Amino acid sequence: MSETSKRGVFGWLDDRFHLAPLVDYMRHKEVPVHRHSIWYYMGGVTLFLFIVQLFTGILLLMYYRPGAESAYESVRFLMNKVPFGWLFRAVHSWGANIFILFAFVHMFSTFFTRAYGRPRELTWVTGFVLLALGMGFGFSGYLLPWNELAFFATKVGTDIAGVLPVVGDAIKVFLRGGEDVTGATLIRFYAFHIALIPAIFTGILGVHLLFVQRQGMHEPEFVSRQPEGEKRTMAFFPNFLLRDLFVWLIVLNVLLFLAVFYPWELGLEADPFASAPQGIKPEWYFMFMFQTLKLIPAHVLGLEGEMLGVLVFMLAGLAWMLVPFWEIRTRATGRLKPMAVIGFLALGFIVIMTIVGYLV
Amino acid sequence: MAEPKRSRRSFLNYVLGGGLLGWIGSVIYPVASYLRPPAEAGGDVASVKWGPEGDFRPGTSAIVKFGRKPVLLVRLEDGEFRALSATCTHLDCTVQFRSDQRDIWCACHNGVYDLRGQNVSGPPPRPLGPYAVNIVDGDVVIARLEA
Ligand code: HEM
Ligand code: FES
Question: Which ipTM value was assigned to this complex?
């Protein structure tokens, strides 16, 4: 016992876990300040919305009863009888959508500022996996109230997985828990939504955040070209963190506004032996893929159009995930940057197809 | 001197590697089998009774539960019955009879079939499979078509 014991709670912990270097690290972490700094908040907002989802999701679990006979009834009970049940359901539903929206914004902002490049390749890859998992959250959660729209949307969505060659049918049966969308599907989606995806997501999110903390924020090219004297930065702790919290507060208020003034509908209960109603559509973040599949002719070069479409989307997703590894580099002076063009094409395609999907 | 040592090492590597593969397989196999749901009873019905013929008004339709599958039973204006699989051949939605258009329609992506189940327009790639309709003791009975 050579060290003299330090005082206070922090001292007690520091004695045992050597926290001082970590605190020191945080204190010296700097966030670049420039005209595109606003994008640094997008990942944090996504993180905050994930926490909101965890919180409201656990509240919903207190009343939700999975099963084809009980799910719809339990959600109706929650909305009509449980104090503020409607509110927590609306926050969870709106939150899910805004969460995906911000994950997309965050992804494109790191794409266009080229934050994905060395040494942040794996930050990008883990981020992409998080977005894919986030969409899995949405797809599985959509079915849980067991209403008509979700029932048929799930039939269509899982049937699309079934068009894949060789593995398609096995994937469909795995997702549905059988040949058809039934109560067995609902139970599986429940397990995905509340156990499997959250567990994987939380682990990968931890890694993603660890990478970000370790490497610090990326400086866009126009900043790194500035002479050292002209660069401005801000301390991560407490300055940047406090701004983060302020942005979260704004987002929380927007979320509450939406939930209170545009409560989430429940719709009609699913009936597997009724005809599909009009207006079956996937959630908006699947719309661009769905709309593209609709536009592909039934047969292309002897292949089934749907299958071709799904394969192309999978390849495009894979290429997007691996962007840091095949990035086309150009000299800083070049006018037209190929990666920016690719990014705008991807973004434009997603936006236009989404809009077209809602118009027709 | 070094030779036998190296081969002993690579032998051990094979044993350990093989053991690891076997171990992984013995975990994956039961998990994958577990995730494949066993076939449920009640899937293979031969026929289903709807009810008395007189209760089915001409120009209307009903969706009948045939085992686990929905079947669309239509009665034309002239009194003739038609039964077709109600599962759209596009992406699995459930179709409906439109008496005003005299066709069968899928609301999901606007697929249209004629009253014999032939796909006429929209995305459906194949016709709807037909079923037999018989009147047995005054009751409408739907049956699987003998192949
Ligand atoms: C879905 C949930 C996600 C959460 C909760 C999340 C969270 C965060 C947070 C808090 C940061 C630090 C602040 C910031 O840069 O905005 C960050 C950085 C980053 N994220 Fe994410 N993220 C998510 C998804 C994604 C996605 C989809 C991608 C891209 C495919 C991605 C790629 C990155 C990159 C490259 C950085 C480093 C940015 C930099 O250093 O400038 N993240 N993430
Ligand atoms: S599922 Fe019937 S038209 Fe698409």
Answer: 0.85
